[in-house]
């Protein structure tokens, strides 16, 4: 049963920010699959449903981004999911807005949320979907940038990107990480 996790920060003050694009993707997939997301049995929100006969779990940690590993460890343990059946979705400043990249494993690439997950799960062999948010910020302003909302122009691009990323998630659920990579990278 694939476990799809989107990273972000809890709280209304972070809604619509660049760092919460992973949460937005989970919301988009939940809408497409008509899955209701609610409190889980741990520090995460969860929704369970199906896509083309494949059961799926959608997860949003309610820990802050840099502590996502604690929540994902509890979700993976709770649902007893092998790591290759998990897909972590998050923002990436090293990709241009509108770009997505899927990988079956790898380093955290400087992303503190993914670093926390790799540390908590003791493995970097976790499929991931990175969503480009760009890096249009001055030196020392990365935190302010990722915690700020998209511009009007960027929002249009990101809405299209979320549609593409949601489709990539559905391919991952149905056909696995290799097929998702072949179609969307």
Task: Give structural notes.
It is built from six helices and seven strands. It has helices spanning 21-33, 68-79, 112-121, 142-146, 152-175, 177-184; strands spanning 3-6, 38-39, 44-51, 54-61, 86-92, 100-103, 128-132. Helix 2 (68-79) crosses helix 3 (112-121) and helix 5 packs antiparallel against helix 6. Strands 2-3-4-1-5-7-6 form a seven-stranded mixed sheet, with helices on both faces. With 185 residues, the protein is an alpha/beta fold. It has one domain (3-184): Rossmann fold.
Main attributes of the structure:
alpha/beta, 7-stranded mixed sheet, Rossmann fold, 39% helix, 185 residues
Largest sheet features = 7 strands, mixed
Strand content: 15-25%
CATH architecture: 3-Layer(aba) Sandwich
Number of extended strands: 7
Binned, the helix content reads 25-40%
Count of separate DSSP helical elements: 6
Assign the CATH topology: Rossmann fold
Low-confidence region ranges: none
Strand order of the largest sheet: 2-3-4-1-5-7-6
List the domain count as a whole number: 1
Q: What is the residue-mean pLDDT, rounded to a whole number?
A: 96
Spell the H/E element sequence.
Answer: EHEEEHEEHEHHH
Overall SS class = alpha/beta
